[in-house]
Amino acid sequence: KDDRAGVFRRLTSRLRVDWMKLHRLLSLVPGHKAGRDPAQDSDRRNIGLLQSVRLALLMHMFIRAVQVPPFARSNDVSRDDVLEMVLSLRVDDALAQLRRAYPVIEPEITDFAVDEETDYPDHRGEDYGAIRARFIDPIERAHALNIRVAVAIANYFGAHG
Q1: Can you give the residue ranges of every domain in the chain?
Q2: What is the 3-state secondary structure (H, E, C) of 50-111?
Q3: What is the pLDDT of residue 126?
Q4: How far is it between the farthest Cα atoms of the chain?
Q5: Cα separation of 92 and 135, whole Å?
Q6: What share of the chain is helix, strand, coil (3-state, %, to 5)?
Q7: Which of 13, 21, 113, 152 is the most buried (most CB within 10 A)?
Q8: Between vectors from CA 75 to CA 126 and to CA 91, what angle results, nearest 5°?
């Protein structure tokens, strides 16, 4: 059974307890300010808010990815492969595969060298513009915003390089 969620929940709980113990001990150090620092609390809330936005964007991407209609397996890539890519945060690869599976440009009869006159097809082909607009484009926008939020969090901590 896959219990990664439970493992992370327990890890988070342990880290939170360690954080509280650390600050309780720091308040006993001579010269250290007793009580909570409002500026530090504000910073923590801002980072928490950014992380919450980031998690919401990830959930939005995951929900959109599982709502994508099934498509024919082509070039050894299936819908399950694309879902695995999104869930493992290889979103750019998944978007490329989805664009290949749902092309916006539909070929027309004039694109081919045909000697005989034809009235087939009797209507224009339909592209997958609606699927792109409803599923692929929102995943792409959420991914771009997710990267920007992650960079904002990293910049706050001075994590460069």
Answers
A1: 1-35, 37-157
A2: HHHHHHHHHHHHHHHHHHCCCCCCECCECHHHHHHHHHCCCHHHHHHHHHHHCCCCCCCHHH
A3: 63
A4: 94
A5: 14
A6: 65, 0, 35
A7: 152
A8: 80
**What is the 8-class DSSP label of residue 136?**
I
Let me know: does 32 contact 25? Beta carbons within 8 Å. no
- Angle of helix 38-67 relative to helix 79-87, nearest 10 degrees, comes to 180
Higher-confidence residue: 30 or 140? Answer: 140
* Residue 85 and residue 97 in contact, taking contact as beta carbons nearer than 8 Å: yes
What is the token pair recorded at 140? Answer: 């792409």
pTM of the model: 0.69
**26 burial type by CB count under 10 A (0-12 exposed, 13-18 middle, 19+ buried):** exposed
To the nearest 10°, report the CA torsion of 52, 57, 61, 66. Answer: 40
Residue-wise pLDDT for 93-149, tens only, equals 999 999 999 988 776 777 778 788 777 666 665 668 889 999 999 999 999 999 999
Per the DSSP assignment, residues forming a β-bridge with 77 are: 74
How far apart (Å, rounded) are the C-alpha atoms in residues 146 and 50? 10
